[in-house]
Design a protein that fits this description.
The protein has one domain. The protein is rod-shaped and about 90 Å long. The chain is mainly alpha-helical and 185 residues long. The protein has helices spanning 10-26, 35-86, 88-94, 99-103, 107-123, 134-184.
Length: 185
């Protein structure tokens, strides 16, 4: 009996299990061996749903990260443009690198720089300064982006956990097929 490669899809495993279960059920001498395959079919549905749910969560959280990244980038560039036109000294205090380079940096690093450097510098400005309104907006953008990154990391961890569960199930199916073959011979 050949092993099914663990890298094969869950659909491939399903077809192999269904075939084996149907063949065992159809043979009166081997019908008693079909029950573990029926159980494996039931387990397949659970694993398929959990893996699909986990993958969907990763896709959705990645989309949210993309939107949050775009939002903080646009707000940062708008702030830099206003600061450049109204008071270049604010621009120099807020940015140690070109604003365009900051928005191309790692999102988490960009958010940390925004919260640690840019927002406190904006907080020091007078209430009537044209850049003052960007403080709360940039802080909110950075906070929501970090939250989205954390949510995506959690979803990726859940996806890996589901993948580990599926791998263990696949190993169990291969063991079942091997022992069934041994009993048949």
């Amino acid at each position: 009996m050949r092993r099914i490669a663990a890298r094969r899809s869950l659909m491939h495993f399903l077809e192999e299990i269904e075939y084996s279960e149907a063949a065992l059920s159809a043979d009166p001498d081997a019908a008693f061996l079909a029950l573990p395959f029926q159980n494996a079919l039931t387990e397949w549905e659970t694993h398929f749903k959990s893996e699909r749910t986990a993958r969907r969560a990763v896709v959705r959280t990645s989309a949210i990260v993309g939107v949050r990244n775009e939002r903080i980038d646009v707000t940062t560039i708008q702030f830099a443009a206003v600061a450049r036109s109204t008071s270049p000294d604010v621009l120099d205090r807020c940015f140690t690198m070109a604003p365009g380079k900051l928005v191309r940096a790692n999102l988490r690093k960009q958010c940390e720089t925004t919260k640690i450097v840019i927002v406190p510098e904006i907080g020091k400005l007078a209430a009537d300064h044209p850049c003052k309104a960007f403080g709360a907006r940039l802080d909110a953008c950075a906070t929501s982006a970090v939250t989205a990154l954390d949510d995506r990391a959690q979803a990726m961890g859940s996806c890996q956990s589901a993948a580990n569960d599926v791998l263990e199930w696949r190993e169990g199916v291969n063991a079942l097929r091997t022992t069934t073959y041994a009993e048949l011979t």
